[in-house]
């Protein structure tokens, strides 16, 4: 499991995120997470063969089609789809492979580690960023919406 120190370093030092499986539907978790990260200064590169553009960014069919440098590959796909994605992430020189909540794959972990990438699984990049860099206070905490005190 990734430590807080590792998660903080990954999110502090890397600013370009290729989101594999990003949906253009605003109500999907991938869209919500990517939009949040984009609004917090990260460059989002959508990866989904169904679309040409998401969140104002050109969408690519796969990781190897991206002409720019990618720091983090954030995966919103089924666990069994992750090994080929890990191979593509290694091929493009990504620094980290991040599998979202509920997504776990030991083969992808081995591929990432052999390529020298950081590896995170079963965690949400948006939740971890908010938790580690203070964004949770904007969503109900410290707003007096949630309180341990009894209402008067």
In whole angstroms, how far apart are the ends?
43 Å
- CATH class placement: Alpha Beta
**What characterizes the major β-sheet?**
5 strands, parallel
Q: What is the CATH topology classification name?
A: Rossmann fold
**H-E order:** HEHEEEEHEHEH
Question: What is the residue-mean pLDDT, rounded to a whole number?
Answer: 90
Give the helix/strand class: alpha/beta
Query: Looking at the structure, what is the overall shape?
Result: globular
Please name the CATH architecture: 3-Layer(aba) Sandwich
Find the count of extended strands (DSSP E, 2+ residues). 7
The fourth-level CATH homologous superfamily is: NAD(P)-binding Rossmann-like Domain
Q: Helix segment count?
A: 5
Structural domains: how many:
1
* Poorly predicted regions: 138-147
Residue share in helix:
25-40%
Strand order of the largest sheet: 2-1-5-6-7
Fraction in beta strands: 15-25%
Kindly provide the radius of gyration, computed on alpha-carbon positions and rounded to a whole number of angstroms.
16 Å
Write a concise keyword list for the protein shown above.
152 residues, alpha/beta, Rossmann fold, 7 strands, 32% helix, globular
Q: Layout of helices and strands, plus pairs?
A:
Layout: H1 4-13, E1 16-20, H2 29-39, E2 43-47, E3 53-54, E4 57-58, E5 72-75, H3 82-91, E6 96-99, H4 106-114, E7 118-120, H5 125-133
Parallel strand pairs: 1-2, 1-5, 5-6, 6-7
Antiparallel strand pairs: 3-4
Description:
With 152 residues, the protein is an alpha/beta fold. It has one domain: 3-Layer(aba) Sandwich (Rossmann fold). Helix content is 32%, strand content 16%. The chain contains five helices and seven strands. The chain has helices at 4-13, 29-39, 82-91, 106-114, 125-133, and strands spanning 16-20, 43-47, 53-54, 57-58, 72-75, 96-99, 118-120. The protein has a five-stranded parallel β-sheet, with helices on both faces. β6, α4 (106-114) and β7 (118-120) form a beta-alpha-beta unit. α1 crosses α5. The longest helix is centred in the N-terminal third of the chain and has 11 residues, at 29-39. The N and C termini lie far apart (43 Å). The relative contact order is 0.17.
